[in-house]
């Protein structure tokens, strides 16, 4: 199993320094008028490469990447220590994707599923074709968009210790980010239907405790030995060690409609990593909650988001979503205070609760217009929109 190098060019994090955080966002490509999906990811990236002014994070336009389906695109930010810088990076990425899509007559939207009926087309790479052949309808239907947050860790040992300790606290992140209530032209009744579709992959979801780097490697290698996965890139845990960077990668969230919500999720993830790492150094053992209970908590967050009860990360009992969020903030307050992020997180969370997550926004648009196309049209503007007022 490949593990990235720690140290050297990718400097480790000292305990008094802020950990850097980066975000990958998957976006849908649509027609700007009809809202219909556009299978043009390859053309969008070629256009970006030809236009020297379209860049991400001061990098070459290759930071725009294809995904499994030709109707989607991925952006990535540079690692940032400050939330203000991260917010700029997220918006820069969305603008770059919007400009490149416009260059081929398309637009991008930060929706985790497309509301209208869609028949996606696989990106014509060898790996994706192998996936389509191996996983059949599961792969064919995977037009879903997530938000992946990377936070740097100083060693694989710290990374695995973090993975073991953040497990019960991940479902609230899904509830906050839920942005996929519609699927194939109908309201699913779920806040995050993406989670239900994504859960069809055989390696997705919460994990058992790994206990050590050796345990993590053994788990991954045992999964690969079954032959059910094509390669290590298909280790689709809700949280995993990155294969390419000295980071932990938290993958449970839907892509957020509003860039501010992306920043909120990233801030909470960094605080979770800090809190878990500090607990590990202090010799505090992880919560040994069963994986089947974690799956139930994830399902509950997917089903009702912020509308109803969630499973409390400590008691495992159903409580109102706001009570779970209060528990999450209480759990993270020391880390958020140390990073200087507490006031920003409280402000962003208050704003999200006032207007609702992406799922609530989509349903409000549909209730007003009775038109699924209107959701996509209005989401185009929201995706690359200006920051909200304080």
UniProtKB/TrEMBL annotation:
Pfam annotation, one family: GCS2
Annotated Gene3D superfamilies: 3.30.590.20
Catalytic activity: L-cysteine + L-glutamate + ATP = gamma-L-glutamyl-L-cysteine + ADP + phosphate + H(+)
Keywords, ordered alphabetically: ATP-binding, Ligase, Nucleotide-binding
A GO molecular function held by the record: ligase activity
Enzyme Commission number(s) from the entry: 6.3.2.2
Broad class of enzyme this protein falls into: ligase
UniProt xrefs under NCBIfam families: gshA_cyan_rel, PRK13517.1-1
Purpose: ATP-dependent carboxylate-amine ligase which exhibits weak glutamate--cysteine ligase activity.
Family classification: Belongs to the glutamate--cysteine ligase type 2 family. YbdK subfamily.
Protein name: Putative glutamate--cysteine ligase 2
Biological source species: Actinomadura fulvescens
């Amino acid at each position: 199993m490949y593990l990235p190098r720690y140290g050297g060019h990718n400097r480790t994090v000292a305990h008094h320094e802020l950990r850097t955080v980066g975000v990958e966002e998957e976006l849908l490509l649509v027609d700007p008028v009809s809202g219909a999906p556009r299978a043009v990811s390859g053309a969008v990236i070629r256009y970006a490469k030809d236009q020297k002014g379209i860049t991400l994070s001061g990098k070459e336009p290759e930071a725009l990447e294809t995904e499994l389906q030709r109707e989607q695109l991925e952006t990535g930010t540079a690692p940032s220590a400050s939330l203000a810088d991260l917010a700029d990076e997220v918006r820069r990425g969305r603008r770059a994707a919007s400009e490149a899509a416009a260059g081929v007559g398309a637009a991008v939207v930060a929706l985790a599923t497309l509301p209208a009926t869609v028949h996606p087309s696989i990106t014509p790479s060898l790996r994706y074709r192998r996936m389509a052949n191996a996983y059949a309808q599961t792969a064919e239907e995977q037009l879903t968009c997530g938000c992946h947050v990377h936070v740097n860790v100083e060693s694989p040992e710290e990374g695995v210790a973090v993975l073991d300790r953040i497990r019960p606290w991940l479902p609230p992140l899904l509830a906050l980010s839920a942005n996929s209530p519609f699927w194939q032209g109908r309201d699913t009744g779920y806040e995050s239907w993406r989670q239900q579709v994504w859960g069809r992959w055989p390696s997705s979801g919460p994990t058992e405790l790994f206990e050590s780097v050796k345990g993590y490697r053994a788990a991954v290698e045992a999964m690969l030995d079954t032959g059910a996965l094509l390669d290590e890139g298909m280790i689709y845990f809700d949280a995993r060690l990155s294969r390419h960077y000295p980071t932990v990668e938290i993958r449970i969230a839907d892509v957020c409609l509003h860039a501010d919500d992306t920043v909120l999720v990233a801030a909470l993830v960094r605080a979770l990593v800090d809190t878990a790492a500090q607990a590990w150094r202090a010799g505090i053992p992880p919560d040994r909650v069963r994986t089947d209970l974690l799956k139930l908590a994830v399902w509950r967050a997917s089903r009702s988001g912020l509308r109803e009860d969630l499973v409390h990360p400590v008691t495992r009992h159903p409580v109102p979503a706001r009570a779970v969020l209060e528990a999450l903030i209480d759990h993270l307050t020391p880390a958020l205070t140390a990073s200087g992020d507490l006031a920003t997180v409280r402000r962003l969370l208050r704003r999200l609760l006032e207007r609702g997550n992406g799922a609530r926004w989509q349903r409000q648009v549909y209730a007003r217009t009775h038109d699924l196309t209107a959701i996509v049209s209005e989401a185009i503007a929201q995706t690359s929109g200006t920051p909200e007022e304080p």
